[in-house]
Amino acid sequence: xxxxxxxxxxxxxxxxxxxxxxxxxxxxxxxxxxxxxxxxxxxxxxxxxxxxxxxxxxxxxxxxxxxxxxxxxxxxxxxxxxxxxxxxxxxxxxxxxxxxxxxxxxxxxxxxxxxxxxxxxxxxxxxxxxxxxxxxxxxxxxxxxxxxxxxxxxxxxxxxxxxxxxxxxxxxxxxxxxxxxxxxxxxxxxxxxxxxxxxxxxxxxxxxxxxxxxxxxxxxxxxxxxxxxxxxxxxxxxxxxxxxxxxxxxxxxxxxxxxxxxxxxxxxxxxxxxxxxxxxxxxxxxxxxxxxxxxxxxxxxxxxxxxxxxxxxxxxxxxxxxxxx
Length: 325
Prior knowledge:
The protein is α+β, with helices and mostly antiparallel strands. The chain contains 7 helices and 16 strands. Strands 1-2-5-8-4 form a 5-stranded mixed sheet, covered by helices on one side. A hairpin with a 2-residue loop joins strand 9 and strand 10. Helix 1 crosses helix 2. The model has no long low-confidence stretch (mean pLDDT 94).
């Protein structure tokens, strides 16, 4: 798997697109949508009852439903590579199936019409194609304009090799109506769930609380958000097993953001399997548990990697600036 980002944060822009690119041959994919206000494209194709067996890329994008147009640029690039569902006798006669989901970040840079389009999607997939193993985090790609209850959100990743030898990884875009912070202490819910006890100084928390209140007021729009995730593994999963992985990964979201799955969220998790490691039932359970844990870890990393931004509406502070980390 490769990850690429493209974004703009100048001239009224504060948004971007992230692409997860499967290896040649594609990946078995599934999706689980639990937010009440999702913005998605081609997710019906991932229903195990339908004809599509593998996909070549997943797009996560800012721009709300307008930003889903970024997937068109990814489709065009994949077609040029001859990647997609064969629909004719010639090798180049393919239709790439590119599932996509969006976060709400409209107007956060000052220009309501500054949103990802096909060219930004192409830039993100080209970046993914050229990428190595390192994945950029924080204010990049679909996390460029991300906010979680007045706090700057962003992109985070986490990965683990299980005892059975299977690799599981997660990428998230943290952009939630709910909070990632314990309101009483400022500690990150995700760190508490992972058994860490980094509780901020009380005086610093009081100051941070005031800055977050100003940030929420400055945004001045309804709390329309959405947290997105992609969980990938080299375990050989079938469509139904991938569907289960996408579902259990939502548990990791619920541990790190409270509340979740609201009517103003579009919380969506994709699962990808592109490996040949056969797993038995006990090992599958390990993969499912790891998916949830890694989503929690990735959310924590996204919040810690995010950087404070100043917009036309005011400042959106980052956790590390508020709490000195």
